Structures are given as structure tokens and as C-alpha cells.
Amino acid sequence: MNANLYALFASHFPADRQACCLETHDGKYYSWNDLDRASAKIANLLAGLQLPPDARIAVQVEKSAEALILYLATLRAGYTYLPLNTAYRAAEVAYFIEDAAPAVVVCSPQNFGWVSQIAFSGGAKHVFTLGDDRTGSLLSRAALQSNSFDTVLRDADELAAILYTSGTTGRSKGAMLTHGNLASNARVLQQYWQWRDDDVLLHALPLFHIHGLFVAAHGALLNGSKMIFLPRFDAAEVVGHLPRATVFMGVPTYYVRLLAERDFDAPHCAGMRLFISGSAPLLTDTFTAFAERTGFTILERYGMTETAMLTSNPYAGERRAGTVGLPLPGVSVRVVKADGTACATGEIGDIQVRGPNVFKGYWNMPDKTAEEFTSDGYFRTGDVGRFDQDGYLAIVGRSKDLIITGGYNVYPKEIESVIDALDGVLESAVVGVPHPDFGEAVTAVVVVRDGAALHEAGLIDSLKQKIANYKVPKRVHFVDELPRNTMGKVQKNLLRARFRDA
Fold first, then answer.
1. Using CA atoms, how far apart are residues 84 and 210, in angstroms rounded to an integer?
2. Which of 139, 136, 172, 2 is nearest to 73 (CA)?
3. 169 backbone dihedrals φ, ψ, rounded to 5°
4. Do 299 and 276 form a contact (C-beta atoms < 8 A)?
5. Which numeric CATH code is attached to 5-154?
6. Which of 25, 307, 315, 354 maximizes the CB count within 10 A of its CB?
7. What's the pLDDT score for residue 486?
8. Phi, psi angle pair for 237, to nearest 5°
9. pLDDT at 400 (0 to 100)
10. How far apart are CA 380 and CA 410, in angstroms?
């Protein structure tokens, strides 16, 4: 049996191959036959380059139907896909190319000059361009190829993709994900989220990240479901397309922006079945406001670049605000103390996971890989959390964000939750900065709601009535917005650097 992920998808394409697979924002339609034939052409082009069997194909292009087809073609041809954030500039791209040593690099036409220079200097043999308007050398070369291709045989433990971690707390590491890792997670999510034959996915996420590619797109491909494919998130455009969709996935920022749209209401969501949130914590205020506005309860889930999805609030059952739900079928999740013993219910500890979805290791970092796995095979996620009495997991924060002040452990998420509940606060982030007496000082960075007037002394006084004194921030700084990466995660390393001397 061929464990190539593309073979799995192809086996679930609908019987009517002329049915619409992708509908773009500008009205173009791609059938399932179009997807199969176009990916065959690009796979033939790649195969004709006489690349090593384990070649990496690095891709930094804008989102388009052809970008998704390039990903599928890479799988079909048996190579390893390496997506790069479109926001990365020369120094960052140079690091990834030096580290991953791709044989082929595909970039946007407007970036060909500087990307090709870096790529060839880094040992790449071929550089192609791919625009978001069907232009570029990749498509012109592929057009000459056959539209038939026999998907290359791959074992489940062979690499399908390398995704670099977001690097919010340090240098990015390449997570090696196999065909088996991705297939197992796609199958579980299809069942757990109860995908239906008539589902239509409104896809507004980027394709260089696990959320948009391995959760959203994989879900639709495995289910044989149509995607309405938007090049980027635009709240007004999403509202316009919602009446024709049944499933939407987004980061918390998307839901905040939807709620800010005057025309967004329950009638627009009448045909929807499921709204899913992930990649960053969803504020309880957003969770509640969305339910009140639409009648739909957002389903929040938890995953990582290294593991794909790990837990999810139930499709049929209570979805609890402030939690990421229950462990997915086949996934083992435990919360442990520093000595490795299990935490009691409600006790905060390190989150460790094991399952067929967990990655193979970090690219070219065997020592780091060994360090991140326990002796009994659990991956140390670096996240800190707790289980409630019903087995729902709540993420408290990253272990690297833990603040040790005066000998006490302070978990930022706990303090952020209290601050976010105060009148006039839109959102907050809590970090530790160096302090001569306490080692680290708890420091809060707050975004104020429009029209509200908050002051540092008043906010600190309010917190002293609600939490232990050692948890109360020594300083509160007010900002217009929190720095975030592309997927909405707050970049606390930037906040620590900015306020370390304040």
C-alpha cells in the first residue's frame, strides 16, 4: 500500500471529478480533475530534474490555488515540502536555505533577484517563480509536461514536510513531519469534527503554516469538500462568503475582526456548521461575544508545528471557554511536575504528548530531538497547563515564559486572565524582566479599549484585591497593540526586550 499522503487524498476525491474543488476570490473554478492534472504536470517537472530522493523543495510564494497544487505535486513526486513565511526577508531566508539545503526553491516573481542569489549561494540547483496570478517560470515549464503521473511510493515514516517553528522564543527549528504523521491527524480530525459530504470550507488562512495547510486544506481534501479560497483574511469579504460555506477556521484575531464588522450577524451564519479557532489563545470575551452575536460556539483546539492537532473541544458536547478541550483519539496527553510525576487535577505542570501525529524530530538536530523526548517516548511540548475535573485541558503558557520572582513561580496566563477581565482592558500580556532584588519582576503590557481611561496605579490597586501580592505586576505599560507573529501569537520576546530596562 502506498502511504504517500497524496494517494490518501486522491482516494477520497468525489466520484464526480468535474465537481468544484477550489473556487477563488476572483471567480475561477478548479475541478478535482484540474487539481489532479495540474499537480501531475508539476510533479513531472520536478521528477525530470533528477533530484535526490530526499530532496527538499523550499517555497516562499503568495497564497493561490497554484501554490496548493505545488504542495500536492511535491508530495506526489516523493519530495519534502518546505514552506516559508512570505514575510521573511533576506537574512531569514538565508538561514532556512543554509539549514535545510533545498535542491529547488520557488519564490514570487518580484523576489526572484534576491531569493535566487541566496538560493544558488546556498547550493540550490533550481529556482522557479510562481505568482499569485498564474504567472511565473514554474507554470510555464510545467505546461509542457504530461498531465498524468504515477504517485511515488512512500512509506508512512518517510518525510512529507519540514516546517520551521515560529521562533517566538528562539532560533527556528525544522520540524520533520512524515506522511504517516499528517495522514493520522487528518483522519482523526475528519471524524472528530464530523465532516460531512456537503461541507464547504471557507479558507482564509495562509498556506505556509500548519493551520492553513495541514488542518484546513487537509480536512477539505480528505473529505472531498469544496474550498472557497481567499488569498488572505479580509473580514468584509469573509462575511460576504459565509452564506455559501459550512466550515470556517481562523486565528483569534479573525474572530475579533469579524465581530467588529457591522454587517456580521446570525443570518450570515445560518448555513454554517462549525467555527474553529487555534494557533493562539482565544479570549473568553471573544468566545462569549461571538456566541451572543451568531448563536454559534467557537470550537477551540490545540496543536503545534511538531505535532499537528493534539486536543479539541468536542463537536457534540460542551465547548468550554478558556480550554482547548480533550485529547484527540489516539493521542496521549499528560501534565507532569518537574520530577516527571503526574499532576493532580487542577495542578499546573508541563504538557507532554505521544501519538502517531508527533513529528520525527528536528532537522539536523539529533541532540535537540533527544532532549525534547522523555525516556518513555513523550514529547515535551514546552507548554504549561492543567486538566480540570472533566479532563478539559487549559493552557497556562509556555514554560519559557514562566516568571520566577522572589522564589515564586508565576504563570503569565493566570495574571493575563485577571487583567483581561478588568473594565476597560481589551487584552494584555505579562512578561518577566530582570530585577535586582526579585530576579525577575512581573510586568504587564496592556491594550486599553477605545474610550476607556486606565492608569498604572489604579490597575495595580485593582489587581492587589484579586491575586497574591507576588503575582501583582511591578509595572504596567500601555500600548496601542501587542506585537504578534503571522499566526496571531504574541511575541513576548519583543516585549521583554522593549521593557527590560523600564
1. 11
2. 139
3. -120, 5
4. yes
5. 3.40.50.12780
6. 307
7. 75
8. -70, -40
9. 81
10. 20
What region does 315 belong to: left with phi over 0, alpha with psi -120 to 50, or beta?
Answer: alpha
Q: Where does the pLDDT of residue 440 fall: very low under 50, low under 70, confident under 90, or very high at 90 and above?
A: confident
- Mean pLDDT computed over 254-277: 95
Per-residue cell: 181: 504523521
Edge to edge, the sheet with strand 475-478 lists 425-435, 439-448, 475-478
Please give the torsion angle defined by the CA atoms of residues 258, 260, 262 and 268, in that order, rounded to the nearest 10 degrees.
20
Structure pTM? 0.87
Give just the sign of the alpha carbon dihedral 212, 215, 219, 222: positive
Q: Measuring CA to CA, which residue among 463, 475, 470 is closest to residue 499?
A: 475
Backbone angles phi, psi at 375, to 5 degrees: -65, -25
The rounded mean pLDDT for the chain is 94
All CATH 3.40.50.12780 domain ranges of the chain, comma separated, are: 5-154
Topology (CATH level 3) of domain 402-499: GMP Synthetase; Chain A, domain 3 (3.30.300)
Percent pLDDT > 90 in the chain is 84
Q: Secondary structure of the chain: what % helix, strand, coil (to 5)?
A: 30, 25, 40
Are the CB atoms for 312 and 193 separated by under 8 Å?
A: yes
